[in-house]
Amino acid sequence: MKRILIPVDFSEYSEEALKVAAQIARKNNSELVLLHLLELPHQANALIGSGSSIPEIMFFKNKAIAKLEELMDADYLKGINVSEAIEFKNVSEGIIDASIKNDVNLIVMGSHGTSGFKELLVGSNTEKVVRFSNIPVLVIKKKAKEFKSRNFVFASDFSKETRKPFRKMIEFAKIFDSNLFLVMICTPNSFKTTTAAERTMSDFIANFDIENYSTHIYNDTNVENGIINFANSVDADLIGMCTHGRTGLAHFFNGSIGEELVNHAVKPVITFKM
Length: 274
What we know:
This protein has helices at about 10-30, 40-50, 55-70, 90-100, 125-130, 165-175, 195-205, 225-235, 255-265, and strands at about 5, 30-35, 80-85, 105-110, 135-140, 150-155, 180-185, 215-220, 240-245, 270-274. The chain is α/β, with parallel strands linked by helices.
């Protein structure tokens, strides 16, 4: 994990995400890229493209640079390689573009539930990044003195198409020496017998070199509630899942469960794109 992107809007939530990213960076000797986005009207974007000078825009850009540099001097970032970037783009689009441009391996974002940030990183933007990012996205929901992933719940249907993100999840779990709780959620609309579910999980896991894990089958009214309730039952530090671009999660993860969890789960959520 060489490079981590952290979108910052200078709210307490984005700073909490930055603190978590700093802890991950220290474990991996990773570089942090701090990204601030300035959303501008269409006309302003056109003027910038033509090279015109806009004092108000430059004022906000200079203010952002000053605040980024102040943030980079924080004690918890000392000894970490940190760079900064300012983009004049739509927030979710700018984050995705910056992740590609900077060749990052992980995006760490803060979120404040359904209402999102008071400034730029609103809930809908977080959902869009989770849905469309090709790299893992870690969403931090609340302040914590130390980011832990000791008890890591990973929910899946354990289908063949989830093998690639499953490998990425294992790599992340190894960083924190996590105990993996692999869970299949069964609902009235996606029912499997215990025997069938156990066979699916066993056949899937046989393809991987994996340690420190246990398998679980959990029944609930819907997938989102099942993941949250199971995570609470095992005192999970982190919830993980696969995302499927336009349609949310694959197979029994219909609709936009990934985005709903980002909004409603109190615990940190990490997503891996299929």
